[in-house]
Amino acid sequence: MQKTLQQLIDETPEGGVLHLGEAEYKESVTIAKNITIVGARNGCENDAPWDNVYKTSIDGLIDIVAPKVNFENCSFSFDNSTVVLEKGISPKFTRCCFVADKTIFAIQGDNTSPLFTACVFSTDEFEIGIVVIDGACVRFKNCYSQEFCPICVKGNKTKVFIVDSLFSAMYCVALFVAKGAYGFFENSSFCNDYDTDSVRVMDLKTVAQFIGCDLAGSPSTLYVGSAAQAFFDHCFLGVNCLDAYNQGFGFHQCDILFYGCNFKGSAARLFKGCDCLIDLIDCKFTDDDRFGLHLLFGKGRNNQINYQIKQVAQLRQILSSSNPIAEIVSHKDEFFDFIDCYMVGCEHKNFHCEGDVWEHTKLVIQNVVAEEHDWIDVLAALLHDVGKKNALERNDGKNMRGHEIDGANIAFGWLAKMGFNREIREHVLWLIRNHMKALDLKVMRSKYGIWQLVKHPLFWRLQRLARADCKSTLDANGKPRDCFDDFLKRPIVAECLEKEMPAAIVEADDFASQKWDDIRVENALAFCHKMQINGGVLSKESLIRAAIKTVGGENG
């Protein structure tokens, strides 16, 4: 007699792998241990998600209790039920298919961070497919909605990352980001076939970033409103309105930037709304008839683009001046609104005896310009601590841990809005994200981590920022707490500066038999290189075995 799926799960040890052959299980199950469940399918490793034919199907609710459960090559059907992931439950689904007649997943709560890779979703045309709320963090890579699977992301600290994926809807918004959530979308498509917007971004503190994405809708493609911020970098936005009275794009009380985007549509017009800040930089407009998108922004469109170019030149002049602080203050309301919003008044009793974040930042700029520098160094100094207010709020006022990530998110929007090109944005964002790692050189013991930092092509700029940052972080007596050059003199740091980082002896092809996705292979390679350098493990076979056990198992 064939065992039930629940029996097979119960018999699988903690950290073990349960291989399911061609079978159909019609039962609900509870998974209370960290295991990997691998089903069977037809298809090659690199097939698109929609090309897979699944031979293992599970028809019933899955109740995941253990925090790290992995699923591969499984097809799930949920009738009148929703899988709830909460309280840190963070499974990984790879090449799986989900079909339901209502919401498939409700993902909620801090530390709940599932990962979906090469998965297919399908739900009823009137239902929201995936709901992410209350501080959860969800990642989708190379995923696809067969028929329909709208995504709703809401709530402060809630995050969603969607890369190389496609999600569509009919009677619902394909992507809805609101209530202070953060969304990052790259090389993905969102479309709606009928009645409403494809993408909707709403509410104060809500931020959505789209890079290389396609948005398409009929009759409406995009709505941004209620004090939200949205940034579109080299995206394609198409709309097919039913007639000249439809509005292809709606903006109301928002801050929105289009950089290098391509607008295309039929009978589409823009409804700008009121109290909007809309910037267009190097965008293209094509149309099919007299109501086309060339009419969206009127005859002043080119002037606005030229204004952005002049704006960057003016900002460079401000940052290159002999007294950049005075110039920044005098142009604060015009260009640097983030100073009052994120810096002035933001302080903590254990940090910055010199004053609030703005006072500290001014000291950093002063110390930057006192040495060899250029305007990019001044720009990085100005923005390096812009995330501390958000970090302080996120950590309930206890500390500012993680402020470099918050700062990079804020700086991304401002840099793009101001019209800086991608190279400048990437350089400045790298400096912001890594300025705390530079200060960690004081105590860092990992040669692998030190080498990765000091051999980065922008480390010379990071040294300028870190040196000024140390000089500007004062103790109760008004003296600098640390000297960055002393960090560089530590024997382990000095050795990494002098010598080249040893080449990795393990390569991606060494894991070909594991049939892992790209993310897991990258994690395995990093693990092996770190073990090779920090642990002194020089046996290729030993490194591969350790990576398979660690990255491919419970901790994968």
Describe this structure in words.
The protein is of the alpha/beta class and 556 residues long. Among the domains are: 320-498, Hypothetical protein af1432, CATH 1.10.3210; 508-550, no CATH class. Helix content is 30%, strand content 26%. The chain is globular and about 80 Å long. The two termini are 34 Å apart.
Compact overview of the structure:
By secondary structure, this protein is an alpha/beta fold. The chain has 15 helices and 37 strands. Among the domains are: 179 residues, Hypothetical protein af1432 (Orthogonal Bundle), CATH 1.10.3210; 43 residues, no CATH class.
Which architecture of the domain at 320-498 per CATH? Orthogonal Bundle
Low-confidence stretches: 288-307
- Which class best fits the helix and strand makeup? alpha/beta
Quote the CATH topology of the domain at 320-498. Answer: Hypothetical protein af1432
Average pLDDT score: 86
Q: Between the first and last Cα atoms, what is the distance in angstroms?
A: 34 Å
**Sheet with the most strands, sense and barrel status:** 12 strands, parallel
Number of helices: 15
Strand content: 25-35%
What general form does the structure show?
globular
List the main descriptive attributes of the protein structure presented here.
556 residues; alpha/beta; Hypothetical protein af1432; twelve-stranded parallel β-sheet; nine-stranded parallel β-sheet; 15 helices; 37 strands; 30% helix; 26% strand
